[in-house]
Amino acid sequence: MRRRLLRALPAVLLAAALLAAWELYVDVAGVEGDLLPAPHAVVTALWESGDLVLRNFTVTAEEVVLGLGLALLSGFALAVMIHLSPLLRRAAYPLAVGSQAVPIPVIGVLLVFWWGFGIFPKLVVIALICFFPVLVTTVDGLAAVDPDQLKLLRTLDASRWQAFRFAELPAALPAALSGARIALTVGVIGAFIAETTTPTSGPYPGLGREIITDVNFQTPRAYAGTAVLFVFAIACFYTLSLAERKLAPWTTRQQGELHR
Amino acid sequence: MPTEVQPREHSPHRESSAREDVRLKDVSRSYGRERGGAIQAVAGVSLAVGRGELLAVVGPSGCGKTTLLELICGLQAPDRGSVTCAPAVLMPQRDLLLPWLSAIDNAALALRIARLSRVDARRRAATLFAELGLDGFEHAYPRELSGGMRQRVAFLRTLLSGKSVLCLDEPFGALDAITRVEMQEWLAQALAREPRTVVLVTHDVEEAIMLADRVAVLSPRPGRMIEELEVDIPHPRARTDAEVITLRERALLTLRLGGHR
């Protein structure tokens, strides 16, 4: 635990230095508070509107977690299908690439028309933005399996499913997890896009929508919300890294631990 | 122990007679049709391996040794001739251990494929694992093992496939000299404990004579059988035995002449 804290020290020091420089810059250059609030003003705003920020954050966090879950599932499933079917690969891969160019506001209204003002349209937006890195890395990971290993499995009378389960799937897992990490970092901004393009009926619209409302007249509060998202993205990223060590232990255990 | 190929009634593929586990009759195989000329890997090879016998196949690089093993294992079909053999399994040149499975799970892979549960597969593998000197490495990942240990695990995986013919493709080719000698002794012990019919492909003539009951010498590509040597020396053999040296020199001479006498 102490070692882990020590490892976080450089990041903490760098953040502190940047915050100090920011504070100094606002003070010395006399920047208006509604253009760039000083860090102390952001902290004050966070303190005063803590409840509002927290409730909106809960909404956003739920969207991010569920949306990412949907993205990982659909990206991984599509990758497996594309891997198994060359026909599907030729048919669906270009469309998946194209889907990344669709400006979300174009389809926002349609999503709301289909699924209403609840959370589901937002999950779809997040999944649409985040499935792609998972898809690409998993497809490449599945294809990168050593063909000799597949041949070996065949000599041991493995079925197609067993070859997939014992060789292709585990071979693709580290790549899929890298894709998941990319997806995760895009996921938070994905939630912001989702909230600002599909209206909500609930009392708390989420941090993204709140930030957009605040940015002109409550600028410090918009920055406070941004800071929360900032920290949330970091937390998600390292949580996944921890999960990675559990899911793919053979990639992380150091050589020489047991034997020369 | 059959020393020469005897004419026999043609029997269907994948079956064996009581005395012979492997029988190749006038087998040829070529690859590719690039620029008009196909590469002929083996040409008119006939050989037979008796049950429990260890046949070593030596030859220069690219003489179709690997092709021969893949024909025996049914991974390829011959262009001409017939292959008759008991269920055979290939131990490839590279160990090809799965990096995500522990040593014991790699050894037990064939049992998992035969739909045993992980627990049962491990239990079945554990006894041999310990007997063959792999004690304590059960839960190591392949990357944590030395080259020699990896080959042992790969051999165990081959053994546990339950097939009666083992095709070993230069199993110790990538090891350093000392480890290779250790591994040859280890293999002899392992086979004494778990007898199988073995076809061992190697470019190391000494290794062939130390381990085999019979040595088949192949010519450069296309591989043809140019000599068969009976190794009638009791185990354990020593590299310095006069008979070992005599046979080794004879095999080397045959190889150097490459069948052009």
List keywords for this structure.
heterodimer; A: 260 residues; MetI-like fold; globular; B: 261 residues; alpha/beta; Rossmann fold; 2 domains; six-stranded mixed sheet; 8 helices
Number of distinct beta strands of chain B: 9
How much beta of chain B, percentage-wise? Answer: 15-25%
**Alpha-carbon Rg of chain B, integer:** 18 Å
Name the helicity range of chain B.
25-40%
Q: Unreliable segments of chain B (pLDDT under 50, ≥5 consecutive)?
A: 1-16
**CATH classification class of chain A:** Mainly Alpha
The overall pLDDT average of chain A reads 89
Going by CATH, the architecture of chain A would be Orthogonal Bundle
> What's the CATH class label of the largest domain in chain B?
Alpha Beta
N-to-C order of helices and strands of chain A:
HHHHHHHHHHH
What count of helical segments of chain A does DSSP give?
11
Total domain modules of chain A: 1
The low-confidence parts of chain A are 253-260
- Assembly category: heterodimer
Major beta-sheet overview of chain B: 6 strands, mixed
CATH 2nd-level architecture of the largest domain in chain B:
3-Layer(aba) Sandwich
What structural category arises from helix and sheet content of chain A? Answer: mainly alpha
- Beta-strand level of the residues of chain A, as a percent range? under 5%
What is the name of the CATH superfamily of the largest domain in chain B? P-loop containing nucleotide triphosphate hydrolases
